[in-house]
Design brief:
Length: 256
């Protein structure tokens, strides 16, 4: 199968939040694989970004609510013939495990990190350009000079409060992405528009393009319709212009 680039547009604030957190979780795990001090510092910044996001609302409650909604919908599919009942049963079981683990968390997710003096000191200096020099925070510099194994252990300890949320959001987004198959579509003159059925809950728009494509989609979505403009990825110093040629792409309107 040819390699593809996938562009996703969230259709509500909950999915938008889940995608942002997924992005941060993926960044953390990527930096965790590498041993350099720069990757360790990047992993720490991601932890602080996650903590900041979780402080903006009741993410735990929103996650539980969406997980329960998905679980109820999937339960209604159990008796439908012709579907993969083994996969469905496995997902439903995973959802229940995640729900139990989320309910077992006391208070807000990651609130224990608010008492971490080092993380608080790092956060205070992140807004200052070059604010994490050795002379600014020598205890942080000392820790960064430790062996990778020691830094790795500490990073996992700091990330531990987010592990259940990480697993749960991965599951939620997997179910959304798998809810609808892609269809082949054409954007005449680089423009595409489609109406939405307001009786159905569209959670995400996904646009798939070949990885060697010279264009990228700009998606605008509302309650009743969405539009896609395909722009040419030319000189990054200039404003992108709309492609005036026919663009073939794959589309999925994820409804669950």
């Amino acid at each position: 199968m040819p390699k593809q680039i996938i562009f996703e547009q969230p259709m509500n604030e909950h999915v938008r939040t889940f995608l942002r957190l997924e992005h941060l979780f993926n960044q953390f795990h990527q930096h965790l694989k590498h041993k350099s001090e720069c990757d360790t510092q990047s992993a720490v910044k991601v932890i602080l970004d996650i903590q900041s996001m979780l402080g903006r609302g009741d993410i735990k409650r929103e996650t539980i609510k969406e997980l329960e909604r998905q679980n109820t919908n999937l339960q209604s599919f159990v008796e439908i013939p012709g579907i993969n009942h083994g996969k469905l049963t496995h997902i439903i079981s995973e959802q229940k495990v995640c729900l139990d683990e989320l309910h077992d968390i006391d208070g807000n997710i990651g609130q224990e990190l608010q008492k971490n003096e080092l993380l608080n000191s790092i956060r205070q200096r992140l807004s200052m350009p070059g604010g994490l020099c050795e002379f600014d925070l020598p205890v942080y510099a000392h820790w960064l000079k430790q062996a990778y194994e020691k830094r790795h252990e500490t990073l996992l300890e700091w990330f531990a409060p987010f592990a259940t949320l990480n697993k749960t959001i991965n599951l939620i987004l997997q179910v959304i992405r798998d809810s609808t198959d892609t269809i082949d579509e054409i954007a005449e003159d680089g423009f595409y528009q489609k109406s939405l059925d307001t009786n159905l809950s569209c959670l995400m728009i996904r646009v798939l393009l070949p990885d060697d494509t010279p264009v990228f989609p700009e998606i605008s979505a509302g309650k009743h319709r969405f539009t896609i403009r395909f722009l040419i990825a030319g000189d990054l110093a200039d404003r992108p212009e709309q492609d005036k040629k026919k663009v073939e792409f794959k589309l999925a309107c994820c409804i669950l």
